[in-house]
Amino acid sequence: MNNYSTPSTKIILVRHGRSTYNEQGRYQGSSDKSVLTEKGSKAAFQTGLALKNYQFDAIYSSPLKRVQQTTQEITKALKTFHNNLPAVTIDRRLKEVKMGAWEGLPYAYVKEHFSQEYACWKQTPHLLALASEDDPEQQFYPLKDLYQQAKLLLTDIITKHRGQTVLIVAHGGTNRALISTGIGLSSEKYQSLQQSNCGISCLEFPDDGSLQGELKWLNVTNHLGEYLPKLKEGKTGLRWLLVSNKVQEDYHLQQYLEPESINLVVSDRNHDSQKLANTCKQQLSQALRLSINHHNFLDFWHHNMVKKQQELASKISSNLITGLIVAEESLLESIAEKLFQTKLNLSSNNSFSVIHYPSMNHHPILQGLLPIALSVDY
């Protein structure tokens, strides 16, 4: 990971808490009819407590009610630790992606009655065109507009707050666009980044005004009692935990490993990888243990673990197979590059990544880049 020689600009991003439309399974988009549930309000307050060690220089929020309510709960929690919290800046560019006629409709209804558009949204979201609400004969591209406003906003914030720490409270789609823009991921990969309700993410940028940053955390939810983010696409397919063999705090790592949920422990043949994998395996008595030669690792990953996941699933009595992969950082970086067609730092000695493959026909989802020590502090 990069080590900036000058103070970096840190941007903490939080998605709003669980809302009424989340509960009802409806598309929210840029509509403002959805509000926080009681559960969502409590989670937002817990999120504020989790961020207590940050000294924020600025706080930005979407104008939509569900985010406003989330921001209020977060700042309420922060004020119990900080007397000089900055005023919240409302920015319309943080509104959620516009979804036209889909807004307010149940997911199931859209899937059935807009089947072609729905398939496009899931597989090639950057190509989705929807009818304009003002003129049904005109079309607009939701992600094109979203990513344009994300780039403008991110540029403004980095320019205005160089070397400072900024909190942004917004929406799942908005945060994905901001994160993607910050790490050079195209809108084609929009569905590949998960943002859970009240999940915490962190981007760091060098103090030179550059828009090319580094993803430090993604979608951290352990402050809500969810050590691994919930599976957005259901408990099917493969889920991989990618861990660097340089991890030192294996005690903390083991807190993420529930014996009944880990099916495989895989490592390369590096000594450090073997040692850490064997330590984890002691806790995971039911898991299969596999070692792979270094030069065969990527080939094994791509062909045996990804393309043949259905065959693997038939051998293990579970709809979801979860595996722990321990390897050298260079190998983990190669895996990430193969998955997302860009260089991403997804593992280090203080974090690990969680990747979910819901099915053979579904793109991989980066569910989280999580802190080994269970804390999102510096």
Largest sheet data = 6 strands, mixed
H/E series, N to C? EHHEHEHHEEHEHEEEHEHEHHEHEE
Tell me roughly what share of residues is in helical segments: 25-40%
Look at the structure and name the CATH superfamily of the largest domain: Phosphoglycerate mutase-like
Instruction: Provide the CATH topology of the largest domain.
Output: Rossmann fold
Radius of gyration: 21 Å
Write down the overall mean pLDDT: 88
Overall SS class: alpha/beta
Q: Report the CATH architecture of the largest domain.
A: 3-Layer(aba) Sandwich
What is the name of the CATH class of the largest domain? Alpha Beta
User: Gap between N and C termini, in Å?
Assistant: 14 Å
Order of strands, widest sheet: 3-2-6-1-7-8
| DSSP summary: helix tally | 12
Instruction: Assess the beta-strand content as a share of residues.
Output: 15-25%
Domain tally: 2
Kindly state the number of beta strands.
Answer: 14
Principal-axes geometry comes out as globular
Uncertain stretches of 5 or more adjacent residues: none
Protein name: Fructose-2,6-bisphosphatase
GO molecular function: phosphatase activity
Active site: 16, 96
Site (Transition state stabilizer): 171
Element layout with pairings:
Blueprint: E1 9-15, H1 20-24, H2 38-50, E2 58-61, H3 65-78, E3 88-90, H4 107-113, H5 115-123, E4 130-131, E5 139-140, H6 142-160, E6 165-170, H7 172-183, E7 200-205, E8 214-220, E9 237-244, H8 250-254, E10 264-268, H9 271-283, E11 288-292, H10 297-307, H11 309-313, E12 320-327, H12 329-340, E13 351-357, E14 365-371
Parallel strand pairs: 1-6, 2-3, 2-6, 9-12, 10-11, 10-12
Antiparallel strand pairs: 1-7, 4-5, 7-8, 9-13, 13-14
Helix pairs in contact: 2-3, 4-5, 6-7
